[in-house]
Description:
The chain has 109 residues and is of the alpha+beta class.
Amino acid sequence: MDSSEYVIVLTTMPSGPEAVRLAKILVEEHLAACVNVQHEMQSIYHWKGKTEQDSEQQLVIKTMSERVPVLRKRIRSLHPYECPEFVVIQLSGGDEAYLSWLKDAVSKE
């Protein structure tokens, strides 16, 4: 099985129920097989010339590379940030049964 067609996408959301809501939408729309909503964390970053600090939650989104363009568009349409994080990490390995499940989960429409 070629694992290069499988990816993990990272994004962050403000802490609170919106992160879970976004995760559910992505799974229900078959844009992701699974989304892990991580515990609250502190993010420190530069934005518009200032150092900012916010409570955020990271979403770890498991999907197929072919779904990335639609996933990116959907996240942009639902995300509250002007410039949301959207980082794609290509997998270089994985359990065959898990990857098969992932493919099946995002292929259903």
